[in-house]
From TrEMBL:
One of its GO terms (molecular function) is guanosine-3',5'-bis(diphosphate) 3'-diphosphatase activity. This is guanosine-3',5'-bis(diphosphate) 3'-diphosphatase. The keyword Hydrolase applies. InterPro entries: ACT-like_dom_sf, ACT_dom, Beta-grasp_dom_sf, HD/PDEase_dom, HD_domain, NT_sf, RelA/Spo_fam, RelA/SpoT_AH_RIS. Its EC number is 3.1.7.2. It comes from Ectopseudomonas composti. It holds the Pfam family TGS. One of its GO terms (biological process) is nucleobase-containing small molecule interconversion.
């Protein structure tokens, strides 16, 4: 009873009497519901909901969140239905409890798949009411504080999950205090020895540092008084997990990290922040390139502050953060501070709250686009660790992106269509590679072209979840349409030998065959044929099988390929066919058609199997560039590579790759990969190379 009275006292400082009584009512309801249940530590179960509500009270959360905290385990653990809570405490509280309950069923013990599925539920619940995640975070925090009662294996698993998901979410919502506690508690459970050693080292170092910290603090205070400014100066301690991360990530010794002294100066208003900055820059020399203005450009999670690093006395580095009281509250409690400062229930969310909403909206969009839940959680995890860079659009709008973002990430952040049709970029008005990592302060301009498509290679360098998800989605769509188109051509080619085509076959016959193959629409069947999962030969036989004639006449002649078939047509690396070479198509399950040369050794066994291979020829309007490997034997001479390059260039060819090995001191063997249009073009290139002095032999390499 004392527990709820003490909490009610604290709540009455910022909530009305009626609201405090509602929280009390929720407590008594939970106490009754959990009657007889005990925690693993032996205490009555109701101490847990009370502790969760107490954590939320520290953040000055509203009464509905506190009621949901009291009741958050009722649906799951006591068999009381959501409807009963709805009748007792209203729809909002019942929805919050239901949202948190769904999250509590996040059973991470099973597989990554289950973890991902549950994380998707969390995104949905958060989208309806952001307070769901705040109650869940408080619930997790109390569980982490009482982790010692758990068996070792389970506590390690919970700690890992906290460090991977919950600490980053707290960070994303700007809740610094909670993030730090999550990280330190998680670190202690995951690596008890390392944690204890660093803790002991920090205790020892603190004794030695006391004097210097006091001196620096005093000199800053004197400086502020001299300038006639009010400000509170606080020495800042680095938390254990961040020390460990820096030691591991930056390979720094403990002493190097502890040599930096950190202070926070808290002032009354924004204007004073900049005046204090000027004063401390006068007091100690600033370190170039280490000043950051997060007041003008807040971090993605709403964090605002001025950061600067100074050379203090005896050259010790001093890190200083300058912010207002409100910014301090926002920095520590993040989105929860929104409830502390809001004056009107109905006003539109702004600042931190709006940012959090924006983030949740982004998470939902990722969920809708992701192929499966694992892909979704991979994207969200990337999104949860943002170290931002700030870049400008050509019109001067600021875009914030995670560190390491490229122009393609920027394009997708502007708009999905801009990303999908992006072909080049200008960084600070100069053409730059799309894969170049962006730096803060750059102006980025995207060049688009109608009809352009995402390149699969982009997946190797994009870092934002949004870009990755949209590229995958667009490639799937592109692959599907190309597979359908190829499948239709393959099927019609076989049907032509029956003097028919797909359009002439009766719809009921098509439906019957679709039923046999358990496909819903003809496009699905054509896609399967295009991807090589079903043989056009067999499907055609089923479509014309009414007559009872099961034999298939010989094919009507080869299928023409244009070189623009896209993702479902690839060229074998073993024999590198080019237009003009006699070719044959091998249908590879899931990959579509692989084009080989007719005499390629790799398909000699299946060459005449009509189910696996199909006769092809090159269309008259074939386009594109094709790679060919040449082996050139010639006398060793100076400037050899330059000579070969200029000869290939003179024949309008392009060298993609070059490597050289000497056979003996006199003769060199050069392997060239050259891109050409067709056999005629290749002949021109070889002719130019033969004309070089000392060339003894040129052969086209086939594996």
């Amino acid at each position: 009873m004392a527990g709820i009275d003490a909490l009610a006292d604290r709540l009455s400082a910022y909530l009305g009497n009626d609201q405090v009584n509602l929280v009390r009512r929720a407590y008594f309801y939970a106490e009754q519901a959990h009657d007889g249940q005990r925690r693993r530590s032996g205490e009555a179960y109701v101490t847990h909901p009370l502790a969760v509500a107490s954590i939320l009270a520290d953040m000055h959360m509203d009464h509905q969140s506190l009621m949901a905290a009291m009741l958050h385990d009722v649906i799951e653990d006591t068999g009381i239905a959501k409807e009963a809570l709805n009748a007792q405490f209203g729809e909002t509280v019942a929805e919050l409890v239901d949202g948190v309950s769904k999250l509590t069923q996040m059973n991470f013990e099973t597989k990554a798949e289950a973890q991902a599925e549950n994380f998707q539920k969390m995104a949905m619940a958060m989208a309806r009411d952001i307070r769901v995640i705040l109650v869940k975070l408080a619930d997790r925090l109390h569980n982490m504080r009482t982790l010692d009662a758990m068996p070792h294996e389970k506590s390690r698993r919970i700690a890992k999950e906290t460090l991977e998901i919950y600490a980053p979410i707290a960070n994303r919502l700007g809740m610094h205090n909670m993030r730090v506690e999550f990280e330190d508690l998680g670190f202690k459970a995951m690596h008890p020895m390392r944690s204890e050693r660093i803790r002991a080292a920090v205790r020892r170092a603190r004794g030695n540092r006391k004097e210097i910290v006091a001196k620096i603090e005093e000199s800053i205070q004197v400086c502020l008084q001299h300038e006639g400014m009010e400000g509170e100066v606080i020495g800042r301690e680095k938390h254990l997990y961040s020390i460990y991360q820096k030691m591991r990530g930056k390979r720094k010794a403990f002493n190097e990290i502890m040599d930096v002294y950190a202070f926070r100066i808290i002032v009354d208003k924004v204007d004073t922040c900049y005046r204090v900055l000027g004063a401390v820059h006068n007091l100690y020399k600033p370190l170039p390139g280490r000043f950051k203005d997060y007041i003008a450009i807040p971090k993605a999670n709403g964090y605002q502050s001025l950061h600067t690093t100074l050379f203090g006395m005896h050259g010790v580095p001093i890190e200083i953060q300058i912010r207002t009281r409100e910014m301090e509250e926002m920095a520590n409690n993040g989105i929860a501070a929104h409830w502390l400062y809001k004056s009107n229930e109905d006003e539109a969310p702004k600042g931190n709250h709006a940012r959090a909403r924006q983030w949740v909206k982004g998470v939902l969009e990722l969920q809708q686009r992701a192929g499966n839940s694992l892909e979704f959680i991979e994207s969200v995890k990337i999104d949860l660790f943002p170290d931002e860079v700030y870049v400008f659009t050509p019109k001067g709008r600021i875009m914030e992106l995670p560190k390491g973002s490229t122009a393609v990430d920027f394009a997708y952040a502007v708009h999905t269509d801009v990303g999908n049709t992006c072909i080049a970029c200008r960084i600070n008005r100069r053409l730059a590679p799309l894969s170049q990592a962006l730096e803060s302060g750059s102006t980025v301009e995207i060049v688009t072209a109608p009809g352009a498509r995402p390149n699969p290679a982009w997946l190797n360098f994009v870092v934002t979840g949004k870009a990755r998800t949209h590229i995958r989605h667009a490639l799937k769509q592109q692959r599907r349409s190309e597979s359908i188109s190829l499948g239709e051509r393959l099927l019609n080619k076989v049907l032509a030998s029956f003097d028919t085509n797909l359009e002439k076959i009766a719809p009921e016959r098509v439906q019957a065959v679709l039923g046999e193959y358990r496909q819903e629409v003809i496009e699905d069947l054509l896609e399967d044929i295009g991807l090589g999962n079903r043989m056009a030969y067999v499907v055609a036989r089923r479509l014309v099988a009414e007559s009872g004639d099961d034999t298939l006449p010989s094919s009507e002649g080869p299928l023409a390929i244009r070189g623009t078939e896209g993702l479902v047509m690839s060229y074998a690396k073993c024999c590198t066919p080019i237009p003009g070479d006699p070719i044959v198509g091998y249908l590879s399950a899931g990959k579509g058609m692989v084009v080989h040369m007719e005499n390629c050794r790799n398909i000699v066994d299946i060459r005449h199997n009509p189910e696996k291979c199909i006769q092809l020829n090159w269309a008259k309007d074939v386009t594109g560039e094709f790679n060919v490997e040449l082996r050139v034997e010639l006398e060793h001479q100076r400037g050899l590579i330059a000579l070969l390059a200029s000869s290939v260039n003179a024949a309008d060819g392009n060298i993609e790759k070059i490597s050289m090995d000497e056979r003996d001191g006199r003769i060199s063997v050069v392997q060239l990969v050259v891109s050409v249009h067709d056999r005629v073009h290749l002949a021109r290139v070889i002719k130019k190379l033969r004309a070089l002095k000392g060339v003894m032999r040129i052969t086209r390499v086939r594996a």
